[in-house]
Specification:
alpha/beta; two-stranded antiparallel sheet; 8 helices; 19% strand
Amino acid sequence: MTKYKRILLKLSGESLMGKQQYGIDENRLAEYAEQIKEIQAMGVQIGIVIGGGNIFRGLSGASKGFDRVKGDQMGMLATVINSLGLSSALGAVGVKSKVLTAVRMEPIGEFYNKWTAIDYLESGQVVIMSAGTGNPYFTTDTGSSLRGIEIEADVMLKGTRVDGVYTADPEKDPTATKYDEITFDEIYHKGLKVMDLTATTMCKENNLPIIVFDMDSIGNLKKVMAGENIGTLVHN
């Protein structure tokens, strides 16, 4: 049994680096593919958005002199590279997937629209939605919020390196404590960095709950889908 029928899984580009300093760790990619295969076998419809920070991040490029729009476009292409990598890893474990892109680049990926994505989800394929929103000045967190709302997902699962939302950064503050659940309003008032403000507001206004959890611990994705109380639930 699974708690959710259709999900939007947001993966960070940095997590794909594994133990490397840059790029894609094939072992980490294979681990993710196996976890995704596990929950697909439970009957879950899976949409995925991946960041591109392991290759290039537009905002950090702008701070180094890149034109912001071109920098963000480079970041969009980085997400396409990661999406193709995950699609390949899924294929290696027998899971069919489609890569959709927010900007036209056939034959690399099919041009995204909501109804195509939902058709693929309902046919049992994993749908990887890349290139962000197709526009500069929007993060992949905002892209995942938008796609989650569009495909009418039951929940957004934000897979990170930490196991939930804390009162402070647990990697910097040893006294930080974890929330089991928290509201969108509390995130605003406490100034917590779950996602950027645009992404958080979109989820709040469209009533899309978020579960922040540690994706790097093998088996956690299945536990979330089974309704186990891991990570942090963010809701209205």
